[in-house]
Amino acid sequence: MDLCFQISSIPCSTHRLSLRSCVFTSRNSSQFGGRSVCLALNSDTLVAGNSAEIVSKKEDEIADLKSWMHQNGLPPCKVVLKDRPCRVIPRPIHYVAASQDLQAGDVAFSVPSGLVVTLERVLGNETVAELLTTNKLSELACLALYLMYEKKQGKKSFWYPYIRELDRQRGRGQLAVESPLLWSDVELNYLTGSPTKAEVLERAEGIRREYNELDTVWFMAGSLFQQYPYDIPTEAFPFDIFKQAFVAVQSCVVHLQRVSLARRFALVPLGPPLLSYGSRCKAMLTAVDDAVQLVVDRPYKAGDPIFVWCGPQPNSKLLINYGFVDDDNPYDRIMIEAALNTEDPQYQDKRLVAQKNGKLSVQVFQVNVGKEREAVLDLLPYLRLGYVSDPSEMQSVISSQGPICPVSPCMERAVLDQLASYFRARLAGYPTTLDEDESMLTDPSLDPKKRVATQLVRLEKKVLGTCLEVIVDMITQLPDVTVSPCPAPYAPILK
């Protein structure tokens, strides 16, 4: 969460409750740890702590949220909440739209701090907030735990109207898909071949580690949980429920700039998940005086959805955080990890040469979409260094300045061949071809999760394929394409 602000909606599924039940409980439990928790609620239930409260007819939740905000200090604004249909569930989802024509630079809305959930508000003590988030628990985990406890109060909670709106959204990204952090193992297989799958599993383990710290934090932060003095977190909330809440908060939290640590992560009504996402949009929520406001970056007609920036995130992060992929994302990229061979007798010398040129013995290279050739050119000197084996050549490299240039035709061929093999292997790791992906995406009945996963791997394959084309082109331009590659007993390692 390192961006100007992070956006999306609260994760949902037919088998998950996210912020839907009063304690985010599982479908099969009505008692846990000796404490009463609400029964499993279906997608039509309210967030109140009573499973018998069912939404009958169509409740005017839009008016409820807006009137609640105005009653609690929201000044007149230039936006309204509207409905649009959702493929995944029968109920429509809400979104923020312009209530009148807007020009770039107009303030669309300004939410007072009293309607913004931050650690400063939750804990009432910035020192405690810093202690928690630097030693034990992330801001996201603290906010998730707070909302979980608040939800137990049902309508008694000040935040009831806002929580109900989050429940209604339930983590749907632009394609009405929740974060893959909440997908099943079968659904995660849609990401086979993509590094994103391993990243999802690693992130899930991190959430579990945070869960294991909940009781300690609850004990330390008496000022936060004094109204629940006997509800020990891990007894009140099973791990799966906490994970759902954590992902929910992750997908709608705003990252404010130029504020204290205790205020930098914020949950803002009228903000995510009600705003639309745009990778090329430059509008973002900002802290101004005692409020959080949105200044639009483009003209809008009345009724148009309002867009905000998700930050310079690659599609893998957009999918994990928000459940969507942007085909027109200028910040999309893939990673290549290259490492000098530690068994190389000249490893230490090569490590020092790499450091002199601003690289590490294990270096991650970014391949940005549209700049594949530049990335390959940046990678080649590092690989050439790994291929140097003759001690006299190594001495020449040590005494030279700047990146390593081609030393011999056979070495250059070996370097390019290794890179070509690497990109071919990565492409072969996907169970489908690019053409098959294109064909699947034309199917309107394609499962939404499979669709968004296919979008992601398709874009990854395009970048990898372009890199391979660059390498093949370089091979054809060698002075002698018939030259045999130099032997490389200690070739660099590519991942």
UniProtKB/TrEMBL annotation:
The keyword Methyltransferase applies. InterPro entries: Rubisco_LSMT_subst-bd, Rubisco_LSMT_subst-bd_sf, SET_dom_sf, SETD3_SETD6_MTase. Keywords: Methyltransferase, S-adenosyl-L-methionine, Transferase. GO terms for biological process: methylation. One of its GO terms (molecular function) is protein-lysine N-methyltransferase activity. GO terms for cellular component: chloroplast stroma. This is Rubisco LSMT substrate-binding domain-containing protein. It comes from Daucus carota subsp. sativus.
